[in-house]
Structure formats: C-alpha cells, structure tokens
Amino acid sequence: MAVGKFEIADPLRTQAILAEHQIQAKKSLGQNFLKEPAVIDQIVADAQLTANDIVLEIGPGIGSLTEQLAKVAKQVYAFELDQSLIALLEENLAPYDNIQIIQGDFLEVDLAAFFEQKQLTGQSVKVVANLPYYITTPILLKLLNAPVALDKLILMMQKEVALRLTAQPGHREYGSLSVVVQTKSQVKIEQTVSHASFVPQPQVDSAVVSFDLAQLPDFAITDRSWFDQVVKAIFKQKRKNLWNNLLSFVGKNPENKAKLETVFQKLRWQHQVRAEQLSIEQINTLAQQLALIFPK
C-alpha cells in the first residue's frame, strides 16, 4: 500500500483538501473534520488493531482516520452519508486496496445482512468512528444491540455524553443511559480531545470512548426487556425518589403500594433512596424482585 508524502491527517494536507474541493462542513450532518494526527494515532492505538481485524468506520469525512486504520487492519468498510464526499474519499484513499467506501445512512444498515454479504461472521470486527454529536446515542444503541458479534467499539463523541456513559452511582451524570450501556460493555474514556482539533471547531470538547463488548457484568440479567423498563421508570423523573418513581410505574392503588413496600423491606431500603444511588447490580436485584409480584 503506497503512502503519499503528506498523509490526510496532516493539518496542511487537510486544509489543502478542503480548499481544493471547496468543502464546507454541513451543520445538518454534524460535520467536524479531525485535523490532529496525534489524536488519530491514539484512536488507532486505542482500537488495538491487528492485521486480522475488520473495521467498520462511520462517517469517514475526508479519510484522515480511515487512512490510518487501513495501515493496520485487514479491511476497512467506511460508511459515509454525504454523497458529495464519496468521490473525494475514493481519490484520497486510492493507494489503499483494503478500503471500501459505502455511501448511505449507517442507521439504516441491516448489520446481519451486511455481515452475511461480506462473510464477516466469525471474524474479529471492530467499530471505529468520529460520530456526529446529534446521532451519537442512536448509533451507539444500534451497535450495542446489534444481532452480530462486534469485538470492540472506539467512538469519538461529545465529552458530556462520554461522562454520562461512564458515570458511576452517586455521580450527577449517572442515569438510565449509564446503566444500559454499562450492562452491555465495559466502558472507558480513553482520551479527551480539544475542540481546537477540528475544522470547523465545535463549541465543546470531545472524548474517545472504548466499549469492550466481551467484558460484561458478573451478574445475569434474566429478562432484558423488563430490566430496561424498570431502568427507564426509576430514572424517569430524577427529582423524585425511587419510591415515587416506582409508584408511577406500577400504579398508586393501595394493593400495589403494599406490594412495593414488601420489596423495599426485603431490600432494606428507605423510601427516600434515589435511583442514582443504586449500583447496577442493585437495580438488577430490584427488577427481579418486582418481576415476582407485578405483571409484566
């Protein structure tokens, strides 16, 4: 694979590409082009890629990260929604024979069908992406709930969202998204990235977050649908305590109040306890206890 003298991630070449092709970042697509080689190198290192890995990249932009991924991975599939960037990407990445640019909305991709088409089942597949802020959560949940085996996710996102995903009990950012994500992967902030590392500059800083999908909690969630319903209910109104949120969930009639009281007594919890004080294991125990006495 040949490599030009100046790589795409080099700030001078990034500027030249944007100027030559008269590219204006589209706010509607949340476009911010990464122009910091050191950040890109660290993202690739965070992904712990090998020559056997398949990489799915979402939103390659002008190919700065794509190029570096292709130097290490076996194959890169880069999904780009912006039709106007496809020809540019194909031109910039032409020296690499292990990159395929796919035009379209990743949220609409049938991953099971894609894996079958590309014969990816049984291979090591990782997702690496600099995500547009406005669709971070939908893409993350699509990946975490994917009907295919993904080994690891390395995702760049707004720093505030990263803090929510990694928040622990007792932290003000700890909520339903923290719980759902942390039951499906081991989550870690790998690096923070200044807004000055992008063209154009967003108003907030970013963070690169890793999701190890092989590292799950050491307790079992027996009914995922019910667990998710309970999580949504107890965090629905953060100003309310756990007792009041649960009453809104199960119903406030005297019979349900009495049933709920037996759960609190069994768990030795006070009515004043709040959802953000509970560990994920405690929330799982709560869901299991509620399932015993309330119809789903």
From TrEMBL:
NCBIfam families recorded: ksgA
Signal peptide stretch: none
Protein name: Ribosomal RNA small subunit methyltransferase A
Catalytic activity: adenosine(1518)/adenosine(1519) in 16S rRNA + 4 S-adenosyl-L-methionine = N(6)-dimethyladenosine(1518)/N(6)-dimethyladenosine(1519) in 16S rRNA + 4 S-adenosyl-L-homocysteine + 4 H(+); adenosine(2085) in 23S rRNA + 2 S-adenosyl-L-methionine = N(6)-dimethyladenosine(2085) in 23S rRNA + 2 S-adenosyl-L-homocysteine + 2 H(+)
Ligand binding (S-adenosyl-L-methionine): 32, 34, 59, 80, 105, 130
Key words, A-Z: Cytoplasm, Methyltransferase, RNA-binding, rRNA processing, S-adenosyl-L-methionine, Transferase
Lineage: Bacteria, Bacillati, Bacillota, Bacilli, Lactobacillales
Subcellular location: Cytoplasm
CDD domains: AdoMet_MTases
Pfam families documented for this protein: RrnaAD
Domain of life per record: Bacteria
Family classification: Belongs to the class I-like SAM-binding methyltransferase superfamily. rRNA adenine N(6)-methyltransferase family. RsmA subfamily.
Top class in the EC scheme: transferase
EC annotation from Swiss-Prot or TrEMBL: 2.1.1.182
Ranges of residues in domain Ribosomal RNA adenine methylase transferase N-terminal: 39-215
Gene name in the database record: rsmA
Coiled coil start-end: none
Molecular function via GO: 16S rRNA (adenine(1518)-N(6)/adenine(1519)-N(6))-dimethyltransferase activity
Predominant place of localization: cytoplasm
Purpose of the protein: Specifically dimethylates two adjacent adenosines (A1518 and A1519) in the loop of a conserved hairpin near the 3'-end of 16S rRNA in the 30S particle. May play a critical role in biogenesis of 30S subunits.
